[in-house]
Amino acid sequence: MENIKLNIEKAFSFIAKDRVYGYENKANAANQKLQDGTGKGNDFLGWVTLPSSISEELIKDIQATANSLRQACEVIVVAGIGGSYLGAKAVIDALSGSFDWLQKERKNPVMVYAGNNISEDYLAELSEYLQDKQFGIINISKSGTTTETALAFRLLKTQLEKQIGKQEAQKRIVAITDASKGALRQLATQEGYKTFVIPDNVGGRFSVLTPVGLLPIAVAGIDIRELIKGAVDMEKLCGTETPFAENPAALYAAVRNELYVNGKKIEILVNYHPKLHFVSEWWKQLYGESEGKENKGIFPAAVDFTTDLHSMGQWIQEGERSIFETVISIKEANKKLEVPSDKENLDGLNFLAGKRIDYVNKMAELGTQIAHIDGGVPNLHIELPVLNAYYIGQLLYFFEKACGISGYILDVNPFDQPGVEAYKKNMFALLEKPGYEEETKAIKKRL
Fold this sequence. Notes:
By secondary structure, the protein is of the alpha/beta class. It has helices at about 15-20, 25-35, 50-55, 55-70, 85-95, 120-130, 145-165, 165-170, 185-190, 210-220, 225-235, 250-260, 275-290, 315-320, 355-375, 390-410, 420-430, 435-445; strands spanning about 5, 75-80, 110-115, 135-140, 175, 195, 265-270, 300-305, 325-330, 380-385.
């Protein structure tokens, strides 16, 4: 079976090829540190061998739980923030029908998300939507006290118990949390919820192949075995035994670091398929939270083409030359649709009659790549043979492994996120949370 393909040739008009291949020792050393657990943040490296270590017992448990929720519920609310929902939503959106949620007759529950914001309007409107629905909740939080998720879960739990009773609600709530500690673990034990464990050595943004991602993905009717199989094959391909020149994760890490030291401070992840929008959102957290430290790191941005060519295209073509693009391309569309002929031809499109829409999209992609390279934007290219669970599994692991290697080359700890706590401290002080009295006094003096 084919693998996803990385093409970095279009970057060599901007940086020297021998400079990129000069990263071989650094990249190989970084990859070895990930494998051996000898680098920074080595207590959060469980994701490195995660795909190949997922047990058959766990897969069966996830599928059985997913089937139970699917039978009982027409809507599933996934409560989580950051890595606790982005990976699942990325996969579900990529592999579901674009208009499945509008269908009256559905094989799979409608998947909705909460706990990723503190918008009163959003939560109120979600509550209204759920009033006449048979719904269940997958609550994802290691601590159980993350403000956004805990707040949403409190509201959802109260509503579910009111609609169907406490005893029945217990059967429709699944908690994915710490193995032994934390508020959610305590609550799940008290209430008798079905639970899955977030491994201690896997950080949130690397957790899509744990139950954090796999359970919602399975509930949505996606083949998690194929997803895992793709990740397993990419784990092997990106391993330490693969030579640098054949290792896509090492090459991607090397070329983006060389672009960075040559002034390309912003990486734009580009797709030409709207289903990949949340893959980009997941990628943004993965790289932004992993590398943005010590006043270092490439800023991760994303666009959906050709849509955003009509909004961001001008800046990309002629704005400050501090950017490079990584394009995710799908070689073959899953559906077939041809441009019809029109007798009047007022739109002038008869020259495309009989051609597939995917062909038009591919020519837009190629034309844009040429234009952007001519405009001073280096282009990297990642090609998936087709959009399916196997290749999405490959893509996710490829990005994860490259992120770890890239972070070590940059000489930061890719597996912590100290900056995330700054806003929380201020928010709790402003809310006058118990235990934050001194912070409350200090911050009020600044207002």
